[in-house]
Every structure is written in C-alpha cells, then in structure tokens.
Amino acid sequence: MSLMAAVLVALTALRVNALRSFLAILGVIFGVAAVITTVSLAQGARDAVETRIASLGASTLNITAGSRARGGRPGGAGSGTPFSDADINALRTDLDFITAASGLVQSNVTAVVDGANWPTQMIGSNAEYTEVRDWTLAEGRMFNEGETQRASRLVVIGQTTARALFPSGGALGATIRVDSQPFEIIGVLGDLGAGAFGQDQNDILLAPVTTVRSRVTGFSRAGVRDPVQQVWVKIAPGVNMETATLELEDYLRVRRNVAPGGQDNFSIRNFADLIRAFNETQRVLGLLLASAGLITLLVGGIGIMNVMLVSVTERTREIGLRLAVGARRRDIRNQFLIESVVLCSAGGVIGLGVGVLVASAIESFGPALGLTGLAVSVDPSIALIAIGSAASIGILFGFYPAMRASRLDPIEALRHE
Amino acid sequence: MSAPLIRARGLTRVYKLGGGDVHALRGVDLDIARGEYCAIMGASGSGKSTFMNLLGALDRPSSGELVIDGEALQGKRPDELARFRNRAVGFVFQQFNLLPRTTALDNVALPLLYRGWSLKKRRERAEECLRMVGLAERMDHHPSQLSGGQQQRVAIARALSGEPSILLADEPTGALDSQTSEDVMDIFDQLNASGITLIIVTHEADVGARARRRITFRDGLVVEDLT
Description:
A: elongated; B: alpha/beta; Rossmann fold
C-alpha cells in the first residue's frame, strides 16, 4: 500500500471519529501552545534585555577610582584618588583603541521652569559622552567640547524630563534653572529605554562636566585638579574587549603609580560580563519554561496513546477484516501510526496558532494587568520545532497501540464483539 | 485429470489450551477441484471452522500438507499468507464485516488497496463487482443505509473484487431471514455457474442442499463426502 493511500485511509478514519479525534489532540494542542508561548516570551525577554544592554554599550567600559584605605579601614568604592579631566585627555591620546572618552559627575537636582519643580538627576560629561553611550538625540544638538571647556550653561534633557517640564512641548531653546543657574536647552535625547535594572534612563539633564562641577555639585577633591566621579570609554569596533581591558589596566597602573603586585586603585566594569550573566539567566529561564511545556506535551502524548488504544480495541473487527483481505502486519501498524502522527501534527499546528495568539494577547494586555516589560518574539524555527516535536510525540506514543493492532490474530479479531 | 485446486493431506490442527491439547483437526485428506460447489457441514466443534480458517490461510496447520492453487501453505510467514489471501481467497462472513461509515464502493475496493492499485482502478473494478451482485445503484450508500441482504451482497462483491481462486463463505445466511437467504444463495448459484469455486460452511440443511458436494465433519475428521 502506498504512503499516499495509507494517509488517505488514516484521514478517513479520523474524520469518521471527528469529535474523538479533536478531544484526543487537545492535550497536544495545550502542550504545543504552552511551549510556543513560553519560548516566545523567553525569547522576547531576551531580545528586550539584549536591546537594553546594547544601550548600556557592549563596547563600553566604565572606570571608577578604587577604594582608599584610611587607617586600615577601606573607604568604599570611589573613595580613592579620583580621575580627572587630564586623565580623560591622556586616555584619548595615548590609547588608540579608545574611540571616545568622557568624564562624568552626577548630582540629584531640582529643575525649575516657570515655578514648576521637577526633581531629577543632572549628569556632567564631556561632549563625547553620547557617543560612548550610543545615545541619540531626538532634536537639537549635543554640546561640543569647546563649550565644555568654556563651562557653558547648556543642557540636553531626557524625554521624561522634557514631558514633565514642558507638557505642551517647546522644550528646545527654553531656559531651565538648576540651583538658581539658568541653562539653555539645546537638545532633547532620543528614547533611551529602561536601564539594566529597570530605572528610567530618560529622566536626565546632561550638561558640560565643567559647568556641573563648578556651578552645581561643587565636586572637588584635595590635590586633584578637575576631578570626575567616573570615566567612560568606548572601545574601537573589532577590538577584543578582554584584551582592551587588560591593556587599559596596564596603562592605568603605570599612570596611577600602582606598585608591581600591589592592589589596583581603580576598577574597570565591563558590560560584556553583565551581558553574559543576563544571557545565562535567560537561557536557564528559557530551558525551564520550555521543559514545563514539554512535560505538558508528554502528557498530551499519553492522552493520544490512550485514545489510540481505545480505537484499536474498538476497531478490532475492522483490523481482522483488513488482515483477511490481504493487509500485512506492517500495513496495519502504519495505518495506526499515521493516524497518530496526523493527529499530533494537527494538534501541533493548532497549538502553534493558539500559542502565538496567547503570546500576542499577553503582549497586548499584559501592561493593563500590571505585567510590564513583556515582549513576545515568535521565531520561525520555534514553530518548526513545535510541529516537529508534536509529530515525534505521535510516533512515540502511537507506536505501542499500532504494534498491538498489527499483532492481532486475524481469526480472533474477526470473532471480536 | 489436472491437479486439484485444493489438496489436503494428513491435515491436523492442535490448539494448546490451559488444560491440554485440543485436536481440532485429526488428519484430513481432501481434494477439491476448480469450479466445485462444496458445502462444509457439521455440528459446532466438529472442526469445520478450523478447516475453513486453514483454507483461507488465516491459520497454519500443525502438521500435514495443504496446497491451494499451486502454493504450499504450510510453513509460510504471516506476510506471505497475507499476500496469498489477497490474491487467492475471497471471504464472505456471517456478520458481513463491512467498514462502517464507508461507502459500499470503498468497501468493495478494500482488498485492492492492499494490492497497490490506484484509486481510479480500484473504484472501476469495485463498480463492476457491485453490478455483478445487482447493487450498482447503491454504491454510494453506507452499510447502515442498506438492508442485511444488501450488506451481504456488498460483502460478496468485496470477496469477488480481487478475482480470487476460491470464494469462502462462513455461514453466509446465518444473519439473514429466509427470503433474503434465498436471494443470497441465488447469487452464489450464479457465481458458481460462471465458474467460480465456492466453499460454503453451514449447518443449515437447505443451504447445504444447493451445493453439489457436501462434506461433513465430526470430531476433526471428514465422516461423509457426498456428491
């Protein structure tokens, strides 16, 4: 009997028992839908985290002064001799794998426009800061390095800040006051999304580091001219981050007089590590969710086996007749195996549809239910895997009933009531 | 005289049951020629059904020799027996054994499915066979839409579709009323008249009376063979 004829026989048998066929595949539908939903959510979450981390900068390094021990007691991160504007310039010129560098000082401030107050964070940086962080501007421009050196009272503001202070628009060109100092708004940042830990990166005032240091925070440290709290550098594309980090460490040890074998008085944070940690977490989470779905699929498979066994018993006389008119054992086995695979594959296709629907529904209505930050991404390969695994379930759990059917004795089967 | 269509020598069949061996056939010698019309008769437990199962290649003898249409059936593997049944035997059962929710046409075409014929060829042959039993206009009906006699005629058409060497009917009128039984037996008479070898297992005397040869079984042996 040809495969085509066998599939037709199976389809006919399934159509004849349409309701039971449908009930049989419910388990598979749920299983596949669960796999699709969870994997899509996990994939969406991974995509979202990757985007967020990319906004942190995969090729970005953050350098802070290390702790300084005072009388045997560590002073905590950043308590050591701070970096300065001079360090930034030296990094820029001495290390050719650094494409952009910026100092950073920050302060919590209250911005005032026409008597309206808005508590926010002010960051002082160099002109290259937006380049280091891969930040874009929605409108206006970033201040340049000349304006930074002149300590101009210019500011670029985040989108949340712009909405809060200028609900009806018109932020660009307006003046805001911070610590009684007037700043002219020359740019509005593009959407920076949420930070790696969920904080709103869009609520920000970005001004020249010199201006913020001298007029807002008054950040100073004895013995250090033009100090900054952090240094951000961007590594040239194609340069290995680990190599770059090692070279930067060597350079900074010399520049900051670390004795050979002594403890570093600075620390470098590499966001690639963070990305790796996130990916690992996501992978584990994805595996966990997918295995929950797989268990559902297995339970669905057991349901299929049950229904197929009932079907074999119910159709014993049919099997006997088919054997009598010349069906070989393998014809009978294949008939039931094909029924099972066709059932499960249909369940896989329906489950795929249900899974995509549920995933999209979660994405659409999740925020309304307080589930924020959910994203869904249906990968075409996932769909193939889901249907493929459903068909495999059909073979796996259909095999035993099919074998039982094919082993029936024709005389006994024909006599079966 | 040419070789008989069916040749049985020293045929035995022993069933192993819990208590001990049951000797259903104890050494049957029998020749049946092509074109014969035989009734196999006997009480239940006489061995006639066992003999029928052996003739239909549904079962294998415990010992002895059974040659049908030139093929020795003893020692054949199940798949070889299946191919033999498909080629050489047409079955008619007491309970018709039609596939439910399947048209008469597709029921009749079923044996040809296992012969690997195309759908078109199968249906053409099935239609031809339904016409032979006078049911050409009912070919799209399901068994539930047919009377008992019509169902048995569909079953006969199915048995004929593969052009078998022998037609085996096991109590073919057992589930029918007397008038319908007459109609079905008339079809058998016509088929035999057209040259088909017919073997009918029955315990009904009037069915047996139509056959030209009556073979009676008792306790696993042939005790009477009348022509």
